[in-house]
Design a protein that fits this description.
The structure is a single chain. The chain is of the alpha+beta class. It has one domain. The chain contains 1 helix and 2 strands, in the order αββ. The two termini are 21 Å apart.
Length: 38
């Protein structure tokens, strides 16, 4: 459960970033047992 919270926090941070030298979140897939970020 801790890993899920960390992934959710990372998703929120990456989706709010708008900087040319930092990665941005292009898309997010949420499945029942796993998550993937691209």
């Amino acid at each position: 459960m801790k890993a899920y919270k960390l992934a959710a926090t990372e998703k929120e941070i990456l989706s709010s970033l708008d900087h040319p030298f930092l990665p941005s979140l292009l898309t997010y897939f949420d499945k029942t047992f796993s998550e993937s970020t691209i």
